[in-house]
Amino acid sequence: MTEAGKTRTIKVDYLARVEGEGAMFLKINDGVLSDVQLRIFEPPRFFEALLQGRKFSEVADITARICGICPVAYQMSAVHAVEQAFGVTVDGPLRALRRLLYCSEWIASHALHIYMLHAPDFLGYPSAVHMARDYPALVEQGLALKKTGGELMSLVGGREIHPVNVRVGGFFKVPSRRELQQQVAGLERARDIARATVRQVSRFDFPDFEQDYTFVALSHPDEYPLNQGRIRSNKGLDIAASEFGAHFEERHVRHSNALHCVMKDSGQSYHVGPLARYALNGHLLSADIQSEARLAGLGAVCNNPFKSIIVRALETLFACEESLRIIAEYQEPQRSFVEVAPRKSVGYAATEAPRGILYHRYEMNENGDILSAIITPPTSQNQKMIEDDLRALVPRYLSEPDETLRWRAEQAIRNYDPCISCATHFLKLNVERT
Amino acid sequence: MKAQKLIIGIGNRFRGDDALGCLLADALRARVPQDVEVIEHNGEPASLIDCWQERQSVILIDAVSSGAEAGTIHAIDLQARGLPEQFRSFSTHAFGIAEAVELARVLNKLPARIGFYGIEGSCFSAATELSPVLQSAARILQQRILDDL
Fold first, then answer.
1. Which of B14, B103, B110, B125 to mutate to test the interface with A (most CBs of A within 10 A)?
2. Is A236 left (phi over 0), alpha (psi -120 to 50) or beta?
3. 8 A C-beta contact, residue A144 and residue A190
4. What is the pLDDT of residues B92-115, one digit of tens each?
5. Residue of chain A whose Cα is closest to the Cα of B102
6. B44 near A CB under 8 A
7. B103 touches A at CB < 8 Å
8. What element of type H or E holds B36?
9. What is the pLDDT at residue A427?
10. A146 touching B, CB under 8 A?
11. Chain B nearest-CA residue for A142
12. Burial class of A8 by CB neighbour count within 10 A (0 to 12, 13 to 18, 19+)
């Protein structure tokens, strides 16, 4: 129990079940939460500087190395930004294949987070291995989904980790209809598992916690967004990717090696990821998936971050169905890519990584050499949001023992599936010379 | 019909000593008896568990970074125990080979015989060759695996 005049510090020196190295720090003075810090101490990786001087044709392979979980997201934002700069549109079967590749990443990434990283929180286990003793079928479902996503990524992307088949203008090699057809049986099984997953995770016990979020996601008139769309919010924002820098700003904070991205006007946090996509685009999911969402207890908008696990499951189901649709309609293109001609230009793109909007901006000279690069990953955008969630959530549990409080706070962080390795790929270095 | 014996070389060919598993897989493939299959793998847990199903005997080979002297050969019977804690740090989302082994153990998906051979690496930065000390350790381990088959 908290006593008057007493300072209580809750620390998690090394966050478990998140990607990368981060820590959490909560300070409680006289029973009042006085400080919250999500401390990201993973060393900065300087990818933006690394890209300077490289060819436009290298962006897909260099940026894929930023993350082992969402390399496709980096590849997609990179090639879309360069194509926008060069005035090239990739459509037809090549566009569909890109969407298919992105679906494979969503399936694999969401399955990993739902089953191996997040579900143990709800079922009261320290890890998926511990959970597997009592819930073996659940864990096997997760493994099967992840395997299906990985196999599809290997086929379309060339390999499962850091795919190599993506290039500006399209792909190096496109799969045949027959090769894609061989994925159908696995995807149909995955779809059934994903549907069961929605129903299972919706029965978890969720804290009664809602925030008035500013949700920001891509929004497309005809499809649940992956590669394309305008950047919109539920509070009236509606901009092209080229306007991102005018509305959002990355700021350095002392306690994190990852920049905090905030809304420029207000300095406030905002929320990207599955809940934001669902709030802005849920009506574009199939009637069947919308029906599953209602059965799972979701309305048109979900403001409870703990229920992000349900939305991830719905998006996994969507990615399986979308993959099957794309494969059924696929006609092998004559060429695996469209030609691009470099020009002096600036290109912008945002795509929907599993964790939310991933923004890229490249400035290139007339030869297509990169002069400057800006990459804003979803976890840096969600960082301040996570701290704001903790500020609102932790006071409810102050009477709980440290261990319970710490676990509940860690769970709140994992609601965002943070990818710290992604978020620390840059750091602004301010050198002061006197 | 799958070969009953499987050797899995795990690693990244472009990260110096981390290429150990891949390069040993190359070397062993030409030298093992016909009833042994040798594959290269990136260490992704779900597909790793999948590829050792229906096998009687599996050998995993990987470079490790546990603080021991470079070139040290670690041999672990994974049926008897898991990978030590100090082997567990380099995996995406903290879900790697050690977790794959433990999940498989809990799910009764471990082969009847499964062993791990690791060699302590010294350099995991961008490079396509093993450091000299690992090259000699790899030759010793290669012979040891062939003798054991």
1. B103
2. left
3. yes
4. 445 678 888 999 999 999 999 999
5. A129
6. yes
7. yes
8. strand B36-41
9. 29
10. yes
11. B46
12. middle
Report yes or no: A272 and A217 within 8 Å, Cβ to Cβ.
yes
With CB atoms and an 8 Å threshold, state whether B106 touches A150.
no
Option in B46, B50, B92 nearest A69 (CB): B92
> Mind listing the pLDDT tens digit for each residue in A334-347?
999 999 999 999 99
| Minimal C-alpha gap between B106 and chain A (Å) | 6
**How many other C-beta atoms lie within 10 A of the C-beta of residue A58?**
15
Q: How far is B48 from chain A (nearest CA, A)?
A: 10
Answer yes or no: are the C-beta atoms of A422 and A273 closer than 8 Å: no
Spatial separation of the C-alpha atoms in residues A358 and A272, rounded to whole Å: 10
Angle at the Cα of B87 from the Cα atoms of B85 and B91, rounded to 5 degrees: 105
The architecture of the domain spanning A47-423 is Orthogonal Bundle (1.10)
Query: What ipTM, to 2 d.p.?
Result: 0.82
| Sign, Cα dihedral of A274, A276, A278, A280 | negative
Residues of A in contact with B83 (CB under 8 A): none
Give yes or no for residue A49 having a pLDDT over 50. Answer: yes
Which of B47, B102, B103 has the CB atom closest to A147's CB atom? B47
Give domain limits for chain B.
Answer: 5-148
End-to-end CA distance of chain B: 20
Domain coordinates in residue numbering, chain A: 7-40, 47-423
CATH superfamily of the B5-148 domain:
HybD-like (3.40.50.1450)
Q: What is the DSSP string of B37-86?
A: EEEEE---HHHHHHHTTT-SEEEEEEEE-SSSPTTPEEEEETTT----GG
